[in-house]
Amino acid sequence: MAFDFSQTKERMHGAQEALKRELADIRTGRANPNILNRVEVEYYGAMVPLNQVASISVPEARLLLITPFDKTALEAIVQGINMADLGLNPASDGNIVRLAIPQMTEERRKELVKDVKAEAEKAKVAVRNVRRDVMDAIKKNDEMTEDEIHDAEDQAQKLTDQNTKAIDDIASDKEAELLKI
Questions:
Q1: Burial zone of 137 (CB within 10 Å; 0-12 exposed, 13-18 middle, 19+ buried)
Q2: What is the DSSP letter of 111?
Q3: Inter-helix orientation angle 6-24/146-179, to 10°
Q4: Angle between helices 6-24 and 106-140 (to 10 degrees)
Q5: What are 46's strand-pairing partners?
Q6: How far apart are the first and last CA of the chain?
């Protein structure tokens, strides 16, 4: 009887996806609409994500243009961006909101690289926790022979190594993007 690793693969891949989502929010000095993913706007008494009340475009490398679907939401959008504490100053002209992405300093880039490494480490810990759970499940399985247990443990370790390498690759890509001037 072979051990089923489908749930293990899914959970380990989930750690990679979570890392990608976290890293998408880290500003690189270029305009990226993903930095506004966590911005919420008060719209008719309810807090809603920015992308549900406005379209976000990137007309230039360091400029985000936010066009509200409803012009009455303009002030709420500006307020939501300020409350999100992104370190950006929204400029409104009465129809649209412009967000200029400032050039990052070398010091800020190095801080962000540290943040990327910390997020990558969290993802690796999540993968190792999945491995620990699988190893426990393998050892508790009474229907497997010793050889099958050994093979399943090797498979679990290989999955862990693959996912850890993938996480390192994702993090190093983001670090390169941050350090690129």
A1: middle
A2: H
A3: 10
A4: 170
A5: 43
A6: 54
pLDDT digits (tens, 9 = 90+) for 17-33: 999 988 877 766 677 88
Q: Which of 91, 87, 80 is nearest to 27 (CA)?
A: 87
Q: Tell me the two tokens of residue 61.
A: 């490398």
- The burial class, CB within 10 Å (0-12 / 13-18 / 19+), for 68 is buried
Which tokens hold the place of 52?
């549900």
pTM of the model: 0.69
Q: Which residue has the tokens 């399943």?
A: 152
Which of 163, 172, 176 lies closest to 17, judged by CA?
163
Instruction: Summarize pLDDT for 79-96 with one digit per residue, the tens.
Output: 998 888 777 889 899 899
Q: Count Cβ atoms within 10 A of the Cβ of residue 147 and give its class: 0-12 exposed, 13-18 middle, 19 or more buried.
A: exposed
- Rg (C-alpha) for the chain, rounded Å, is 22
100 bridge partner residues:
63
Distance CA 181, CA 179 (A): 6
The whole-angstrom separation of Cα 99 and Cα 108 is 19
DSSP secondary structure of 69-96: SSGGGHHHHHHHHHHTT-S--EEE-SS-
Q: Closest Cα to residue 53, out of 100, 101, 97?
A: 97
